[in-house]
Design a protein that fits this description.
Elements: E1 7-9, H1 14-23, E2 28-31, H2 37-42, E3 50-53, E4 63-66, E5 69-73, H3 78-83, H4 85-90, H5 92-98, H6 104-109, H7 112-118, H8 125-132, E6 135-140, E7 143-148, H9 149-152, E8 153-155, E9 158-159, E10 166-173, E11 179-185, E12 195-201, E13 206-211, E14 218-221, H10 232-245, H11 257-275, H12 281-287, E15 311-318, E16 321-328, H13 333-340, E17 359-362, E18 365-368, E19 381-383, H14 397-404, H15 414-427, H16 433-439, H17 450-465
Parallel strand pairs: 1-3, 2-3, 15-19
Antiparallel strand pairs: 4-5, 5-10, 6-7, 6-10, 8-9, 11-12, 12-13, 13-14, 15-16, 17-18, 17-19
Helix pairs in contact: 10-11, 14-17
C-alpha cells in the first residue's frame, strides 16, 4: 500500500487527459507503464496529488509504416517493440535496445513514451533514438509539435515537455542501407546500463550516441574519424573523442566518473565495429541480444470496499471470475489479490518491482503486481498462481516439474517464478538454458538455487511438448 493518498483519474480519450492535465496544476504524475513511477511512489520519493493514467486511452500502442519512417505510438509496450516486424526490418537496433530493458515483467508493462518522459540518463532507448535522428511528437490543448530526440532530453531526468504536454508518438527514420548497432555495459541482467552506446553508419556518414555518461545522451558525428574506413586507428580516434566529450560523467556506487568515460569509449568503439560487420557473430551476441530471433484476518477490510477516502470503482476478471469492487487509490494489485480477494499465493517481497515474487498475468502477460495500481486494472483479466491447478492433487505440469526437480526450495519465490516460467513457455515452448535464465531474470531466488529452477522449467517444457499444453492466455 502506498502511504500518501492521491486522486486517480483514467480517462478513455486523449482530449480528456489533456484537459485534466491542463487544469490540474503541476502536482500530477502521468502513468503509462509505471515501471519507474510505481517504485518511486512506494518508496515515498514521489508524492503526487493526482495520478493520471493513460492506460485506458485506446489506440496508443502501434507501429505504422509512413514512407521513410516508422510511427510508434507512445503507448507501445517494450515487448511489442521487440516483436514488431516493421521495427525488425527497418530499425532493428531499437528492438535490440528494448530487449535489454529491465526484465520480462517490465517489458510487458513499460512503454516507449513512458521511458522517454522519465528521461533516465541510462535508459536504453535514448541513445538509439538520438543516433537515428528520431522525433518525439507531443500534444497539449494548444496543439501538437515535434521535438528532435537530441533536443528532447534537457537535463538529469528532465525533458523539453512543456506544461500540459503528453508524449503521443515517436517518429523513427528507417535505416535503409545504413547499418546500426547497440551495446551496453551492465552488472547483471535487468540492471540499468552503466554506459550504453548506439551507432549508425553508411558509406558517407557515421554517428554515435552515448547514455549513462552524462545527464543527457551525448551525440557525436564521427564521419571524419571513419572517413578512411572502420580501422583500428579510426576506432581509437573515436575513443579519444568520446572520452573528451564525457566530461560530465557521473560517479556513483556502480562506477567512478573516469571508469564511465573509459567504458563509454570502449562501447562506442564496439558499437561501430559491430555496425561495420567487423565483430565476429559470437562476440556480437555477447554485446547484445538479437531481438528478432501481511495483516491478520480480523484486520482485513471487507471485500468490495477497500480503505481510505479516495477510491476507484473497478470491474476485473480474476482467474476467470468477474469481480466488482472499490479500491483505495493507494492499493497495488498485489494487495488487492491478497487482502481483498484472499488469493495469498501471490507473494510480496520487495514491494518495489525488484524481486518478482508478486508476478501475475495481466491480460495474458506477466507483470509485477506490486508495481501496478489496483485502480488501473479496470476491465482487465488477471491470472494468479491459483489459476493453474484446482487442488494439490491436480497440479499443472509446470508445478509438477518444480516439485520433481526441487525447484520450489523454500517456496517463497516459487509462485512468481512459476508464472514467469509459464509466460516463457507460452512464448518459447522449447527454450535452451540461456533462454530460460533470460526468461526468469525478473525473479530473484532467495535460496540462490537457480539451477534447480532451470532444470524444472526445462523438464516442464519437455512434458508440455509431449502433450500437456499450458492453459491459453
Amino acid at each position: 500500500m502506498i502511504i500518501q493518498e492521491f486522486e486517480f483519474r483514467a480517462p478513455d480519450k486523449l482530449g480528456e487527459a489533456l484537459a485534466v492535465l491542463a487544469e490540474g496544476g503541476d502536482d500530477i504524475k502521468l502513468l503509462s507503464g509505471g515501471m519507474s513511477l510505481m517504485p518511486m511512489m512506494a518508496l515515498g520519493l514521489v508524492r503526487p496529488r493526482m495520478v493520471l493514467s493513460l492506460n485506458r486511452i485506446e489506440g496508443r500502442g502501434y507501429v505504422r509504416d509512413d514512407r521513410d519512417a516508422l510511427r510508434v505510438g507512445a503507448g507501445t509496450r517494450h515487448y511489442e517493440i521487440i516483436r514488431d516486424p516493421l521495427i525488425a526490418r527497418h530499425c532493428p537496433l531499437l528492438a535490440e535496445a528494448a530487449s535489454f530493458i529491465g526484465d520480462m515483467q517490465v517489458r510487458n508493462r513499460g512503454t516507449i513514451g513512458g521511458s522517454l518522459a522519465h528521461a533516465d540518463p541510462a535508459a536504453d532507448y535514448s541513445p538509439v533514438l538520438v543516433t537515428v535522428g528520431a522525433r518525439v511528437v507531443v500534444r497539449s490543448r494548444r496543439g501538437e509539435r515535434e521535438i528532435a530526440a537530441e533536443k528532447f532530453f534537457t537535463g538529469l531526468m528532465a525533458t523539453a515537455l512543456a506544461r500540459g504536454e503528453i508524449v503521443t508518438e515517436v517518429v523513427v527514420p528507417k535505416l535503409g542501407a545504413a547499418r546500426g548497432a547497440y551495446t551496453r555495459l551492465h552488472r547483471i541482467e535487468g540492471n540499468f546500463a552503466i554506459v550504453n552506446a548506439a551507432a549508425v553508419l553508411n558509406d558517407a556518414n557515421a554517428r554515435i550516441a552515448l547514455g549513462g555518461a552524462g545527464p543527457v545522451p551525448i551525440a557525436l558525428d564521427v564521419s571524419a574519424e571513419l572517413s578512411h574506413g572502420v580501422t583500428d586507428d579510426a576506432l581509437a580516434a573515436v575513443g579519444r573523442r568520446v572520452r573528451a566529450a564525457c566530461g560530465d560523467a557521473p560517479a556513483d556506487l556502480n562506477a567512478s566518473a573516469d571508469y564511465r568515460r573509459q567504458m563509454a569509449a570502449v562501447y562506442a568503439e564496439r558499437a561501430l565495429a559491430i555496425a561495420a560487420g567487423r565483430t565476429p557473430a559470437r562476440h556480437a551476441a555477447e554485446m547484445g541480444r538479437k531481438a528478432a530471433a501481511s495483516a491478520s484476518t480480523q484486520n482485513k477490510p471487507a471485500a468490495g470496499t477497500v480503505g481510505g477516502a479516495l477510491r476507484t470503482a473497478i470491474a476485473i476478471a480474476v482467474n476467470g471470475q468477474p469481480r466488482r469492487l472499490e479500491a483505495d487509490n493507494r492499493m497495488v494489485l498485489a494487495d488487492l489479490l491478497r487482502d481483498v480477494l484472499g488469493l495469498t499465493g501471490t507473494h510480496i517481497g520487495c514491494g518495489t518491482g525488484s524481486c518478482g515474487a508478486c508476478t501475475v498475468m495481466l491480460d495474458g502477460r506477466t507483470v509485477k503486481s506490486c508495481s501496478v495500481l489496483a485502480a488501473d486494472v479496470d476491465g482487465c483479466a488477471v491470472e494468479t498462481i491459483e489459476s493453474l491447478a484446482p487442488d494439490i492433487q491436480h497440479l499443472h505440469p509446470l508445478q509438477e516439474s518444480f516439485v520433481r526437480n526441487h525447484g520450489q526450495q523454500c517456496g517463497y519465490c516459487t509462485p512468481g517464478m512459476v508464472m514467469s516460467a509459464l509466460q516463457l513457455l507460452r512464448d518459447n515452448p522449447n527454450p535452451d538454458e540461456a533462454a530460460i535464465r533470460h526468461g526468469i531474470s525478473g525473479n530473484l531466488c532467495r535460496c540462490t538455487g537457480y539451477q534447480f529452477i532451470v532444470n524444472a522449467i526445462s523438464d516442464a517444457a519437455r512434458a508440455l511438448a509431449a502433450g500437456k499444453p499450458p492453459p491459453a492466455a
